[in-house]
Amino acid sequence: xxxxxxxxxxxxxxxxxxxxxxxxxxxxxxxxxxxxxxxxxxxxxxxxxxxxxxxxxxxxxxxxxxxxxxxxxxxxxxxxxxxxxxxxxxxxxxxxxxxxxxxxxxxxxxxxxxxxxxxxxxxxxxxxxxxxxxxxxxxxxxxxxxxxxxxxxxxxxxxxxxxxxxxxxxxxxxxxxxxxxxxxxxxxxxxxxxxxxxxxxxxxxxxxxxxxxxxxxxxxxxxxxxxxxxxxxxxxxxxxxxxxxxxxxxxxxxxxxxxxxxxxxxxxxxxxxxxxxxxxxxxxxxxxxxxxxxxxxx
Amino acid sequence: xxxxxxxxxxxxxxxxxxxxxxxxxxxxxxxxxxxxxxxxxxxxxxxxxxxxxxxxxxxxxxxxxxxxxxxxxxxxxxxxxxxxxxxxxxxxxxxxxxxxxxxxxxxxxxxxxxxxxxxxxxxxxxxxxxxxxxxxxxxxxxxxxxxxxxxxxxxxxxxxxxxxxxxxxxxxxxxxxxxxxxxxxxxxxxxxxxxxxxxxxxxxxxxxxxxxxxxxxxx
Amino acid sequence: xxxxxxxxxxxxxxxxxxxxxxxxxxxxxxxxxxxxxxxxxxxxxxxxxxxxxxxxxxxxxxxxxxxxxxxxxxxxxxxxxxxxxxxxxxxxxxxxxxxxxxxxxxxxxxxxxxxxxxxxxxxxxxxxxx
Lengths: 298, 219, 130
Description:
Structural class of chain B: alpha/beta
Order of helices and strands of chain C: EHEHEHEH
Distance between the termini of chain B: 25 Å
Distance between the termini of chain C: 18 Å
CATH architecture of chain C: 3-Layer(aba) Sandwich
Strand content of chain C: 15-25%
Number of domains of chain C: 1
Largest sheet of chain B: 4 strands, parallel
Radius of gyration of chain B: 22 Å
Strand content of chain B: 15-25%
CATH superfamily of the largest domain in chain B: Response regulator
Strand order of the largest sheet of chain C: 2-1-3-4
Strand order of the largest sheet of chain B: 3-2-4-5
CATH topology of chain C: Rossmann fold
CATH architecture of the largest domain in chain B: 3-Layer(aba) Sandwich
Radius of gyration of chain C: 14 Å
Order of helices and strands of chain B: EHEHHEHHEHEEEHHH
Largest sheet of chain C: 4 strands, parallel
Shape of chain C: globular
Helix content of chain C: 40-55%
CATH topology of the largest domain in chain B: Rossmann fold
Shape of chain B: elongated
Helix content of chain B: 25-40%
Oligomer: heterotrimer
CATH class of chain C: Alpha Beta
Number of helices of chain B: 9
Structural class of chain C: alpha/beta
């Protein structure tokens, strides 16, 4: 049985979370394999929510599976697909089934997904979503009505350490911290100097929120270029692209894992931040290899 | 002003299948300025329709007219006589004008030749950009005069999102600026960044209950 | 009234350049097809998109808009506007399923009679092939 995530946040030195991408359909077999593989090796398992605006089995449903298999789920909610009523309703349900960690996100736009003509909701933004969860936590819905049975969520948010320009992002980050987040899982980082600089900003803002650096292994130079162009919030620096293009053919995945593990080791040894959040969607079964190479396989 | 663009010719043509006598009516205000449905465009569309019909030997008689504002009943009334002579009307006005024509002449089908897109202004020659979404709850004083409701692709009030591209471009379109980066720069210039640091509550999306209606106080 | 029924080419000729070139061609006894109708205009920029479309409606098979060389327009940008309108008209023709090559912009100097003749002959060929 996994330790509760919110306890882990305050007691463990180096926190590790990973991500599970749901299936596009109802065959949950593979997902369950990933869940069983990872749930005892990480402190929390995120489940993405129609990630990149591609319609999939919901985060909420998958979190229930994580729970069933003894893992510690982190529910991801975006503002793209649901209005404030639906979000509150989902949060009540999730909590009633034992899910009590939530990551509050704005959400990728429908244009990057596979239902490009859909009406984007964005009734709220991520900061307002955090406030909403705080309302529910205090026993009221967001318009002030008393709840008949409440919730108590551990709240997370995201941040983009390598944004350019960074100042508007920092203003927003301050709002998230002021709203009261317990942890932040950042977008992918590749440059440790960027991360260190980001941590300086964090220390000036507030010392209490836990920062987990996002690790997205890149398995080839072409993939890196593609991500730079098409995946919001990701910037793979040239020297990593170079390192990848020099890797012998067929060793892309191993190289990506090696680079990721190296970054994790550096973060841990230099205590740059409080932990890492590993996102290897589509290759969840290789996550234990990253953990092992980084020396953090429990 | 209201910006619109002409529909593809094929789409307009297909609406008119079977009609032999039509009136193409333009509007002299917004759509004239944005080169979509003014007198000139009426002439061009009518000419194209005639060329297309002649090519396949179809019969098509076209009357042409342009009124100063197609959203005003008194002005639309002026084409009453021409309307009586035709089977159908092609309106080159924005959606408001099309509906005014349809309401005034209920017996005749009215077809829209334009797609009305947004409220905007000219950014350069032949280029118009969206500025206002008619949300009914203007917050421009908080954002340095830049509207996040329509100029931010996600309509965020506490932006930017994490998807901003390098250089401050929008996640959705690298050619477009991230509105929140623009707001940041504007407020910084004015020394009013404290406005951006404020937390903005969820928007009242029911400020204008559709279909909107406004009753002005003054007679 | 079908397109090209009389195979006529309408040539809008700027009086500062093309019209003079056409005149010179006449004086030099240069031969060019007789199905071209020359319309003198004060500047190629005076020709509107609608003039071009109406010419086709009236039965023309081809339209030439002939003006000064770029940079030499006495009204500064008339020939540039004409060029853009010819491009626009070609697109409008394609929209109705007609050939955009039936309208062309030609830039020439006032004494280039041969260039005038070449342009007319080329358009006459263009029409014949379609």
